[in-house]
Structure formats: structure tokens, C-alpha cells
Amino acid sequence: MNPLHDLFSATRGKTIAVAALVIALITPHGRTQDVFAQDAQDAPTPDKGRYTLFNPVPVRMMRELSPDRPDKTESPYTVDAGHFQLEMDFANFTYDNSGGMVTQTWNMAPFNVKVGLLNNTDLQLVFDDYLFSQTKDNVTRTVTRKYGVGDLTLRLKLNLWGDDQGTTALGILPFVKMPTNTGGLGNNAVEGGTIVPLAVKLPADVDMGCETAVLVLRNENGAGYHGDFVNSITFDHRLFRALSGYVEFFSDISGQAHAGWIGTVDAGLELAVADNLQFDCGCNFGVTDAADQYNPFAGVSIRF
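Given the sequence above, the corresponding C-alpha cells read:
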């Protein structure tokens, strides 16, 4: 069976569904992101504490769309209570060439589905939908291919302050990864951690985001666990009307013996088509030996 044929067949239905949602969301009555931001500045902050999953926040009171993508730095802002948000890659490609091994991985339509539980709390389900990996050993001149689904991650985001007002916002994001992978694409271990993201609005229409995280991951030999320590900082600036760009530095230091430091420099663009719709693209570039060489991607964020 051809794995590439399976890859495109598995994602065709999702592409059609996303296209239908996009058409439904782009209407003549939608406000631009500029108007939304101006309204937020002029109007007093509403009291939204009474809204829940079963008593949704009215559309007129919803905060600005703030997805966790496309950069690696998470957002401290939550999805409004009673509303849903889909954040998805159309395609995500990773290339790594190290130790005589060349690995190319396609991740098709990985997604993060969010639901607003309370005014400052949302629940997230992250899933690596379909993976195809090919590794070429330049020493033995052999090629290994793997394909299947990836792991499922459950996350709960709590905004501590700044969801609806202020120049700063802070959140906390605990998560647990469940080993749902097939085809030998994961380590078949339960892992987890906690992420603390911070957002700061700077002068000159610049938004800064940063995060620190502690992860508990399984050792490569399958015996025991170790800590991973992640830090990142990103700067986002509006370039032209609805088009913004960002640059980011990401660092992952492993507590496992002999593991290398992963460092990347990332950049990308975001196009806010409507209040509830944003397209993006970007590329992450490895700047240390342990990091993948490059990782281009393109995706979308939709709120409803």
C-alpha cells in the first residue's frame, strides 16, 4: 500500500470541511481586526464572569482572536466561554540531517480543538492526525518508512489576569500526552508538564510573548523519566493592515544525560481575514546540532 496515497486520502475530507467553514465565516457583516481593536479600546470592559460553556458569551462581547499558533510560544488568552476554536496545520514538514541519518517527516492536518469552559478557562485537545516519516541511513544505505497517527494531548488553560483588559496577560497551561500513536511513531509513554505563558503589549504596535515550561518526558532507553526545560520569546508586529509578522527564539534543554540543547530561530506571517479567521505560514530554523534543520508549515485558526 502506498503511504503517500493514504496520507492524501486521510486528509481530503478535512480539507473540504475547513473550506466550508472558511466560506461561512467570511461574510460582508464581519468587522476587520482594526475595527475590533478600536472598539475594545473605546468600550468599557464588560463583566463576563457569569458566562459558561452552557451560557455562551455574546458575540459582541468576545475578545480578540488570539490563537496559540503559529509561533511555538503559547498564548495566555483563553477562548471565550461557550465558544470553540480550531487551530490546524494544512501541512507541516520537518527535515533533519545528523549523525549520518536523514529524516523527513510530513505531519498532515494536526489540530488543536479548544472549548471555552469559563470566562478564563478553556479545554484543549491536540492530536497529530497523520504522520509519514522516512529515514535514510547514509552508512548502511537503507531507508525506513513509518506512517500512522500520532499522540493525543489534553491541555487546560487558565488565564490568571489580562484576558479582557490591560497591557499584560499571564496564564498557566498544564497538559498530559496520551500514547495513541501507531506504526512506531512515538515512545508509547504518558508524558506531561506545565507551561506558563506571558504576553506584553509594547509601544509601536509590537506584541511580545514569552513562556517557560517544565516537561516530564520518558528517557530514550525507556527506563524512567527526566525533566525538560523550555523557554521562548517572540515579537509580533503588524506590517500592513491585516498582515502581521513575528520572529521568535526557542530553547529546549533536556535533563537527560548526553542530550543536546535544542535551539531554533523562527519566523512567520499571520493574515487576519476576519474576526474569527486567521491564516498563517512560517518556518522554524535549527541553530544547534540537536535541533532539526528546518520546519516549514502553513495553517489556519477558526473560531465559532
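The radius of gyration is 20 Å. Try to locate this feature in the C-alpha cell string yourself.
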